[in-house]
Amino acid sequence: MLNLPKLPLAKWINAFVNWLTQFEGFFQGVTNFLNAIINSFQWVFDLLPQWLFVVLIMAITFYLNRKKQKWSLLILELIGFWYIANQGYWRDMTQTLTLVLTSSLIAIIVGIPLGIWMAKSNRVRTIVNPILDFMQTMPAFVYLIPAVAFFGIGMAPGVVASVIFAMPPTVRMTNLGIRQVPHDLIEATDSFGSTSWQTLTQVQLPLAKSTIMAGVNQSMMLSLSMVVIASMIGAMGLGTKVYFAVGRNDAGSGFTAGFAIVILAIILDRVTQSFNKQKNK
């Protein structure tokens, strides 16, 4: 082994984080913006009675699968929501759903344009790909440290950590979907005098929709996987129940709350997949 000097990398990172904390006003503004979105979702969920919420979800599922008549999914949703309400986890479930929807919304708003930019420029793809690799391979617990330093504790830092962890699939799949559009179609649209915006919105995005939606589905599932980790920094929801159960060594409470997360994950996965199939048709 070469006797090389040890780089003070940890000190450099800490110094950089401390330097960023001086922009407290900016981070406070981002926190207020995220809290506004979170409170809006939660206000809607609190406003709806439990029975109406279940009816709406089942109606959406039935509409998306009306030609296939997947009654098993409707039965699963009915039994799953009954279990969550019966165990007293309804409020926690809506808080978890708020965290997932907020994270997924931000991941879509940021990830899809970034994926389009990557598909249009090989240089951007070369720069962004290593960043996405870093975001996906870095342990999720590491994101909690700067999230707390910049945004405090609560739901907002949990959303930030979830977005960083869950956004790469949306970016990658958007880039992949657009790049897979046949060049013959692009040349045909150019020959008819279409602009770049018309080619993107009327040819590339419709043909890449299935791939993009697969990335959105994966981002939503990754965001849901962060709920237990985000509970360590004050994010409320089902993850908090699991986290407290681990601290008390309460296997029963941990299992029941974990099973509620599994039910919510299955419902979200099936509904988003049904939406994708409906759009493809």
From TrEMBL:
It is a multi-pass membrane protein. One of its GO terms (biological process) is choline transport. One of its GO terms (cellular component) is ATP-binding cassette (ABC) transporter complex. Its main location: membrane. CDD domains: TM_PBP2. Residues 93-272 form the ABC transmembrane type-1 domain. The keyword Protein biosynthesis does not apply. One of its GO terms (molecular function) is amine transmembrane transporter activity. The chain crosses the membrane at residues 47-64, 96-119, 140-167, 220-239, 251-268. The keyword DNA repair does not apply. Belongs to the binding-protein-dependent transport system permease family. PANTHER family: GLYCINE BETAINE/PROLINE BETAINE TRANSPORT SYSTEM PERMEASE PROTEIN PROW (PTHR47737), GLYCINE BETAINE_PROLINE BETAINE TRANSPORT SYSTEM PERMEASE PROTEIN PROW (PTHR47737:SF1). This is Glycine betaine carnitine ABC superfamily ATP binding cassette transporter, membrane protein. It comes from Lapidilactobacillus dextrinicus DSM 20335.
